[in-house]
Amino acid sequence: MEFNITEGQVGTRPPVVKPDARVLEFLGEEGMRQLISDHYDLLKQSNIRGLFPPSEEGFQLAKKHSADFFIQICGGTRHFDQSRGKPMMAARHAPFAITQEARRVWLESYIMILKPLDMPENLKESFWNYLDVFSIWMMNTTDLD
């Protein structure tokens, strides 16, 4: 499959479709947590590592919150709501400068995780399409030229 990154504009909220619930059925909660953990481990080595907690404890908690969100968004247990309240992800990300470049790095890191994943292509595509559009919502700062 092609992992295309849609051009996005700061402040836009294009319609987003939740991933197919079979993504979570395929991965299971532990598999989803591992996918998110692997993604975060790549981000920790990237040029956007400064957007994540510097302490190991904080970094592990960020992984947990992200996994809870994705489990919930894929139709699983509402761990995120139970531990943190309504997601309101754009507001939660507002304190961090999320540029088009940061979004690109975030998405490219997901590509590295998803490409070799032994998951049916239609499920990868469903998850990817969500990530691609959802990430546009998170951008809140224009790239500096």
Compact overview of the structure:
α1 crosses α5 (100-114) and α5 packs antiparallel against α6. It is built from six helices and no strands.
Portion in beta strands = under 5%
CATH domain class? Mainly Alpha
- What is the 3D form? globular
Helix content: 55-70%
CATH superfamily: Globins
How large is the radius of gyration?
A: 14 Å
Supply the number of helical segments.
6
Mean pLDDT: 94
End-to-end distance: 32 Å
- Major beta-sheet overview: none
Q: What is the CATH topology descriptor?
A: Globin-like
Quaternary status of these chains?
Answer: single chain
Structure description:
The protein has helices spanning 22-44, 56-73, 79-84, 89-93, 100-114, 121-138. With 145 residues, the protein is mainly alpha-helical. The protein has one domain: Globins (Globin-like), CATH 1.10.490.10. Helix 1 runs antiparallel to helix 2 (56-73), helix 1 (22-44) crosses helix 5 and helix 5 (100-114) packs antiparallel against helix 6 (121-138). The mean pLDDT is 94.
Write the layout of secondary structure elements.
Blueprint: H1 22-44, H2 56-73, H3 79-84, H4 89-93, H5 100-114, H6 121-138
Helix pairs in contact: 1-2, 1-5, 5-6
Defining traits:
145 residues, mainly alpha, Globin-like, globular
